[in-house]
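ASSEMBLY PREDICTION REQUEST
Request ID: AP-0331
Submitted by: J.K., bench scientist
Number of chains: two
Total residues: 880
Priority: normal
Notes: Please return the full assembly, not individual chains.
Input sequences:
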Amino acid sequence: MRACGRDRIGVGISRRCSRVVARGAYETFAQLWKSGASAPRHNALGPAGFSPSGPQGLKASVQCVRNAALEGPLFHGSGGGVARVLMIWLALGLFASTTRAQVTFERLVNSAKEPQNWMTYSGDYSGKRFSGLDQVNITNARTLVAKWVYQTGATGKLETTPLVVDGIMYATAQDDRAFALDARTGRPIWMYQRQIPSDIRPCCGHVNRGLAILGDKVFLGTLDAHVIALDAKTGAVVWDVTAADYRTGFSFTGAPLAVKGLIVIGVSGGEYGVRGFIDAYNASTGERKWRFYTVPGPGEPGHDTWEGDSWKVGGAPAWNTGTYDAVTNQIFWPTGNPAPSNRGEGRAGDNLYSNSLLALNADTGKMNWYFQFTKHDEHDWDATQVPVMIEAAGKHLIAQANRNGFFYVVDRSTGKLISANAYGKTTWSDTKDAEGRPIANKDASPTLEGHTVCPGALGTTNFMAPTYDPQTALFYVTARDQCDIFSTAPQPYEAGHAFYGSAYFPSEDARPYRGFLKAIDPPTGEIKWKFDHTSPTWSGVLSTAGGLVFSGDAEGNFIAFEAKAGKPLWHFQMGGAVYAAPMAFAVDGKEYVAIAAGSAVYAFGLP
Amino acid sequence: MFRRWCIGFVFLGVAAHGADAQNPLAGDAKAAKAGEYEFRINCALCHGLGARGGGRGPDLTRAVKKHTHSDADMFQVISNGIAGTAMPANGTNGQGVGMTDEEIWQIITYIRSQEVKAPGQPLGNAARGKNLFYGDANCSLCHMVEGKGGRLGPELTGVGGSRTRDAIIDSVRNPSRRLAWGLTESTKEFPQEYESVTVVTADGKQIKGVTLNEDSFSVQIMDMNEQIHLLEKNKLLSFQKTRESAMPKYGTDTLSDKELEDIVAYLISVGAK
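STATUS: Completed
Returned structure:
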């Protein structure tokens, strides 16, 4: 039933873009277009399922793209001189079709130079989710207003982080929707929805956390375990490859990461006993360049950390988005729980590389080092939280607020652990090993009668994206104090069926569950400040150069905090719980902060 | 196009289950065992580890159930949920994996294996319980049943069907042990947990009551006189909330075991209708 009617998209496509500023430039551009100098590369009728709007709708959407490109910050924020230079470029045909819409690898590496754009899931390769924009700041944040709202029409949890490139927003919604909006107005330019099979069974909702962009394409991992490339101007499918068989439990929910010419993405399915992997696809063709299996096969190092054949169904998915260090050409990608997620019997050993941070060579997918956060996990504590690259005291580090309740700092040249400090309520570990890694107490395992452990299976944090603000040198993360009763339920493995091995539910004794926004000092692990939410939230966090931290709550508020001390300065009731992370961008020289809540994407700005 | 056909067939299939489908696994002990594990993962949160119910969901070991009679009914309820209740449709609680048809049948097989064929009759007398509820026990000052009674505490018309006898007795004897069980996050529709609250407004007025809803910036309160107050937290002089229930603790000195059984019998007689 869910899939019925979802192919009827294209309704609501903007037929007209009302604002044509920089008129002279537009006309010049339009003439060039007509003369063929900038003809669109794709003349497809649109993506699968685009038909209701037909060619007319497509034409309208293409025109909108052209306008938006010309109305971008380059024209409006730069004065007449720049506009004149651009006019000359246009006249010479240098502008062509490949200028602003093309996102090169160089632009991604140097994203700090264009803070008006948000070109990767975490805002930049380091995973900081920090915006260099400061127009909205601690002195004027209290005057923020809603600028527009885009209703996706989707139900369930909206987990997307939008991208914005040169005035166009690209985002996703449930059931593998993707769409492009005029970032100033929220008006749609194109919409895509995949016809997903009716028998997909993603563990945690039909969710998606976002796109990657490279060249003239955006990239989406789908619930039926395909990776697809969409034309950034039309949403037309350019290529579509099958990564794995969704019927055995594989899916994609995380945003891919575009690195060099590759689209890197990790698979979901830790609840089904999949064998996890991280893939890299050629962005132009969809051809798979490499695959790294997160559970080593026979003969490979680490294989002996699995009992018998348990490795075959060992889990270790990689469902969130990693980070990238251009200096060392390494991808840092975190992995999830071993399977079955809540029962260690039958898979004796450390179960590498579950719940680990992997450093992979971006070109080859070969592993340089790994660090395992939770060995032989029995509590579903996926270590898939964003590994944030930070610099401190001249050291190149990775900081991660882990689902198991500890905040880890790791040397990113070697993978050596620097420190691990609890940042929430934990009862599972009282001791550390020689390296300083927290290790599980003997009595922390699930039992038949049920046994309370903190944090619960949802973790101290989870997929909600954190932020690191280089101005305050603080790491901000959404956290919760909840404990679960873990009770064994030893199911056998059956392909495509849930494979948890235990049941868990919130321990009533530990109520009320508390939710927080916490500011952590990475060198010491000290909590510098915390804000008590009314209940635990799933919102991610953004920091900006304006001295602000933004986050949402389960009650539907979007809140701006003063980054240094955590004072809430402004809030807006969006009418729906937040499961997404905020981001910031600018168009026409005006800063916006955007977040998804309920079924909609909201953009806020100064009056 | 092919997929749309498939979806159509699936739909017909489910409809057929509802009308007259037989449980293909009925009586299969192995299926019941598999069903027990599925039950723990998907159902025990509300219905308890042994299907004997809890503070959130009814005791499923009762042979006579309110919403389901046949296995086919049960299949429908598990697949589609029960509108207007906390019972979610399969796979829609946002956590955990949706079950396959086979897994649902396993759960039904398990539940059937746990049913107590001749459940004990309520110990109390429902008519006497009703008199107590609306009379000497003062329950109706704060609780409404079938449209009559107060508003300060949870409405109790359905409680006899959705809660176990033990859970009701515990709530009366120890009201603060668990406040009215707010549904947990995954299936939460409304957050009211009847937390007790005391605030002092800017003009020095003290308001005591229970929270109807709350976020970081505002709170909606019903005071002891059933007046609703809509307040902004930053304009209050003080805001104090406790999980000490506003309901008095009923010891055996104020309500004997026998009287309490009468009230439980009354609530079950109403709730099981």
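REVIEWER COMMENTS: Residues 198 and 231 of chain B are 12 Å apart (CA to CA).
SIGN-OFF: pending second reviewer
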